[in-house]
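Annotators were shown the component list below and the corresponding predicted structure, then asked to write short factual statements about the assembly.
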Amino acid sequence: MENKNIILSVKDLVVKFKVRDRVLTAIRNVSLDFEEGKVVAIVGESGSGKSVFTKTFTGMLEVNGKVTNGEIWFEGENLMTYKTDKEWLNIRGKKIATVFQDPMTSLNPVRTIGYQISEVIMKHQNKSKEEAKKEAIELMSRVGIYNAEQRYDEYPFMYSGGMRQRIVIAIALACHPKILVCDEPTTALDVTIQAQIIRLIKELAEEYGFTTIYITHDLGVVANVADNVAVMYAGQIIEYGTVEDIFYDPRHPYTWGLLSSLPQLGEKGSELFAIRGTPPSLFEEIKGDAFAPRSDYSLAIDFEEEPPMFKVSDTHFAKTWLLDPRAPKVDKPKQIQNLHEKILALTSKGGIYGER
Amino acid sequence: MTDQELFAFKRADDSASEHISAPKYSYWQSVFRKFFSSKTAIVMLVIALTVVLIAFIQPILSGYDPMETPNINNPSMRFIRPNGEFWFGTDDKGNSLFDAVWAGTRNSLIVSFSATIITQILGVTVGMFWGFSKRFDAIMIQIYNVLANIPMTLVAMIMMYVLGSGMPQLIFALSVTSWISTAYFIRVQVMIIRDREYNLASRCLGTPTVKIITHNIFPYLISVIMTSISRDVPSFISYEVFLSFIGVGLSQAHASLGRMIQTYSSYMTSAPYLFWIPVFISAFISVSLYIVGQTLADASDPRTHMV
Amino acid sequence: MKNYIFSRVIKSIVAVMVVVSIVIVMLYTMIPRYKIFEKDEGYKKMSGDARTTYMYSRYEELGYLDFQQKSEMCSNASDNYEACMVNDSEELNAVISEYENNGYVVDYLRNGDPFVYHDYNPLQLIWNFYSKLIQIDHPGYVKDENNPDIERKYYIGESPNGMPAIMCSGCQYKYQLYFNSSFPFIHINAIHFNFGISYPTNEGMPTWQVVSQGQGSQVSTEQTFPSGVVEKSPLNQYTCQYKPILDTIDQRRFTDNYANCQSYYESPSMINTSYIFGIIALVIAYVVAIPSGIAMARNKGKIVDKAGIVVINFLIAVPSLALIFFVRQIGSIFNFPDRFPILGFEDIRSYIIPIIILALLQIPSLMTWTRRYMLDQSNADYAKFAKAKGLSQKEIFTKHILKNAIIPIINGIPSSIILCISGALLTESAFAIPGMGKMLPDAINASNNNMVINLTFIFTALSIFSILIGDLLMTVVDPRIQLAAKGGKKK
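Structure shown to annotators:
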């Protein structure tokens, strides 16, 4: 653990939101280290807190949200001590950039594409207008825009969705960030475009050498691009490991459920798997294991006490009582027992993410 | 508990996993709770109710008629300053201003309430069809594009000129010039709600149209209509006062705050109370009704009910 | 794009025509026509046949009906004028029955002379209005028996200020097109709108002249007349029309018959008066409302925002009439006049309070919309992305949000500017300002139908075309619309 190069380290983070006089705890004591140059995927269903978690890295929480506990260490500084917007401006965009879900609305409709890219270059690299323009055009070609010079002065509505996402990525890369947070970057795009964008981000990550944090609920993307995977549920990371750990040796019942519900794994004639029930309300205090009410493998203690993070291997951790030595032995559900072979079979068929 | 007990399988029943922590909810209860949580609104409601009550009861007791001037030949009855007997004093014809003001207020309120009711019924009905029917929309939007550009004050004034200056005519002129904008407002809201995902989903799941309208659309529309009413009532009062002030509203046979303000403006220096009391009362009614209406409109919006 | 503009213009013209036609028909058919004499002192003094003839002549002049007296009937419908002019003659009776068959109503004066009249139906009323509405001047206009050999031609001449002008002989106006230093610098007399004459107020004057001509007493300046005479005179030579009979002063000043000129006045016309007040108030309203709306949006939920909302609600809830008198009263405490004529056009103090009021009346809605647009835009995804890009709060507002939020505000500016002309009815009434706003209720109360029609036309046309201009302006400021149109051309 010690010899790894940690670029961003989150310790015991708690984020609370005030929603119409009620307090919602969106992130509950999360700790996570991000290794430099790696691709980390954060997966989980809607409302599990994955977006909120990454927003804290850049101080982008909504006005009613607040970090009430914890530290985020980046380049020797605890970002949680930042109070003013001015302090954040050194991090946001410059060191940690974000690409959002919907490229259709991420760009200002009444400013030219060129303006929106060179604006960032001028701001963060103190370059002149001409230099910025030159660099912006280079970036545009780099992310795959043909005739970049001509298209510099065009407006976003003249670009297709996939091209806009390329522009958004170009803007995010304009000041050579150390970390790129991709918040569901392909959800709003066509399936055919998704693969292109993911490939592009991957190539750029190698070229520019930044750390990528993916937020997604698309396990296909995860299998293809991620080095490490963090599974979030109800504001906590419940399992963390390398992509192999998570896909071939998952330990948490929620991860099992998540993998079982992959439609690609469904067998002809059998019903698709679904996790029953709904996630718990984050307005109320959660006792024990948050997933217990929905789990087919819950133990009595799950309703009494919160499980600690159990270490499975040097790279693999899971937060479930099933890993306690006192717990009964449980077999993984049938659907995911031969996941390795199934995934290989899928990718060899040339599935959309078949390049890995 | 022993370890063995603690580490035994225990399956939560399905109801627990489906549990959604939402408190019991009643629409109208929430509306009232929300409304009465605002102190200003309560004060304004009391004021508005008092004004409305006095305006409808006092003129019955006084039997005020602006055309009857029994004291006109009695100089000692003219221009009496407000005192214990004549709370608001008397005017140039020896009539009690207190009686005149409340009769005027009553007329303003009658005109305003009637015009609001007609405008809303017409506007909401047309607006609903307009919002739901694409074919109707194609025709109506053309008509609206023409009508919306015409200065409605002008139309109202010309209508009063043509039709004559009575109460029904005024109500007619106000309604005719306002219903289309209400209808347009409702149309836009209906279109927004109609195409919301939860309604599409509801329809896909086979919910009958009637149930969609009563359960999904109506509660939302209530707050929209409330907003519309809360704007209409005070604005029609102002409108009546305005038209009567410039001489094309209610005729001399009707008591009217606007006409009073116009007539008494010549006594601004000699008997200022004659002028200022109607001005003040008209402001008072508008402001109280406006604030009550706004708060009620807010309270009737289900989105504000999440406490 | 061209098609769009064309269809919008056509629709606008149709809309104006429909409204004006409806108003014409309503005014002429639904209002008792005797009401027009209620303010006519001359009529009240008349009696007998004089009164009857006057009444019908007026009706004819104002376009209610076609009225013909005996002599007119005879000269129109009879070959034998002399025989026809004798009452009860066969010839006259034949003429009368001919008129009767044509739908005319026959009546007799007390002296036994017959006369006929026939009311126009709604279609004729509308036709009469529009057929006379646009008058194009031409060299054949003048038909003067005393001057049958008048030269009929256009020529380039010199206007009184020495600039070249297109002039005409034989036309109604001498100067057809000329330039001078007063707004709008290029002036055209070749085309005129005819909205009929004003009656009973401003009797006999064209209604358009009533609202556009200067007010107050005439102002004389030293000027050179075509004959070379230099004299002090209030005449505006650019407006000279053909005058059949010249008096001695005219003969001394002019070399031709174009001596019927309008004058210069010391005070601006009704339109200009309203415009002066309106424009200044408008500028103030925008200057105050937009920054405060922005400030409220930037500090949403904070004290600035809350205070702003209270102010806006107060200004909206208080009836304008009450607000006007409150502010006027406050003004008079600080020794501002509470009536415009007290100090008049020359004194700046006359303007201050009315302008403040006019601005105050526009500020609340302008502020509300600015705040709304700003908030809507700041919740947009691109604003969040701009933040993620590392732009400061201020940069996001000025460089991104403002540019989007300002577009709908710009859309409303042309109509605000143009509608200043229509005046502010209440404020002008309260301060007795001689502007356009008071004209409509005054015209209505005086049963001045032509004036009502003229004003309806002006106000409706202004509001419809200003919205059109606002929409066209959008194509300039909003790249999406402009470029979408370009894309359309490619097809």
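Statements collected:
1. Chain C touches chain B through 41 residues (CB under 8 Å).
2. DSSP finds 20 helices and 15 strands in chain C.
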